[in-house]
Amino acid sequence: MNRSREPWLAESLVHELEYVFFSVFVVDLREVVFVIQSQRNSFHVQQAENLRKDLLLQAQALQEVSNIYLFHTFIFVFHDLLTLYLFGKNSSWIMFLEEDTRVKLHKLHEVLKKFDRRKEWFLGKPLHDEESTIIHHYAFSENPAAFEYPDFSAGWALSISLVNSLTSKIEEEPLKSDFTIDLKHEVALYIWEDGKGPRLTGVPELCTFPEHKPRAQYCATTVSSHSPVCGQPVKSDNIFVAVKTCKKFHSDRVPVVKKTWAKRASLLEYYSDYADPSIPTIDLGVPNTERGHCGKTFAILRRFLSSHVLKTDWLLIVDDDTLISLPRLQALLSCYDSSELVCLGERYGYGLGQGGYSYITGGGGMVFSREAVVQLLASGCKCYSNDAPDDMVLGMCLNALRVPVTHSPLFHQARPEDYAKEFLAHQTPISFHKHWNIDPVAVFNKWLLNDKHTEGLQKSTKEEL
């Protein structure tokens, strides 16, 4: 061999390896499909549109083209991965964003270049449970921290290779779902498939810091707001509060309501199966049921529209073991138009893979605009029994009326202990539910007492982590 050619051969080999490496890992932003998880309410449509415009402006500045789709504009649930595959079949990545996620496209580009686009990747900011929880059906009870799932606020990504595999799986065996409670956890479980699929790969550049914080300069994604405020808070005398209770809880749960959040309500009534003037409670003539409470809830809806109560734009229905911050709710409602059909709270789903419906889960609090209540009752929708699940029946009614339910992650069906600490750390929560194995007054004081929409609560929460 002519040794004088060895340096040239070595250099040529290096160039060849570099070509192979970069042909795999370099990602053009045109190869990234963005799906903004938008909602059909006008406030959320505008939020999503603002994010879309920001992405387009960044792409234009980088002389790139971005493929951006809004979740609410096409019929789609996560299980319909074929839809995503068709949108992104000529791309390498599908990136999911929430409406308040902010993206630095150039940094995201650098992040995605690190991953072989030919392989099956599931990327995101990892969350984990510290103890087994009811909202995750007590999964991984022996070691809850062993399983990680994405914080949707930071954005999350699937390689098209993974989407293709998931699509093939669904075509072979259509997904049969029952309840959808925490989609981010259920998505991760579905992709993992008992170890047959990939686990979530944590990406430190996918962040949930406020976008103006110094630490956010290293992030590809940030969060624009931990608690949206759109103007002057709705006045307390424009919210009618209905508390569902029963005689057996008059002596333990009702005192907690009065000691914590009820003092901030201008218009509040307690509805029970027994009229107790010392509270006072109102007997709606509906017998108490151990579960469901549909009859009682529909009686509340009718009373809200009657002359028995002062006319307000908003109705809040809560359980007697719900803990809620009314000032924070008043601030949040500044973002919504009460003349629209608004049904707001924590959204759950039933049978979404088979044409089911979404509903607002009752324990975290259900908020209705007056117009929504008018339309619900005018539709003739009613309970099939007094003990039917009220929130699910309402979901069926709204689905029949084609009225969207609006999700806010600031409402919580369970206790703070049931959510990942990192998830709560970037929130200013509005509600929690259940008194089980907690001191409800202490929980309220820690999580919900602070009325100001400042970073004080967020900062103190993060320091505790």
TrEMBL record:
Alphabetically ordered keywords of this record: Glycosyltransferase, Membrane, Signal-anchor, Transferase, Transmembrane, Transmembrane helix
Topology relative to the membrane: Single-pass membrane protein; Single-pass type II membrane protein
Record-annotated Fringe-like glycosyltransferase domain positions: 89-171, 233-438
Main location: membrane
Compartments where found: Endomembrane system; Membrane
Cellular-component GO terms for this entry: endomembrane system; membrane
Domain of life: Eukaryota
GO molecular function terms attached to this record: glycosyltransferase activity
TM regions (residue ranges): 68-87
Family: Belongs to the glycosyltransferase 31 family.
Name assigned to this protein: Beta-1,3-glucosyltransferase-like
Source organism: Sinocyclocheilus anshuiensis
Source organism phylogeny: Eukaryota, Metazoa, Chordata, Craniata, Vertebrata
Designated gene of the protein: LOC107682850
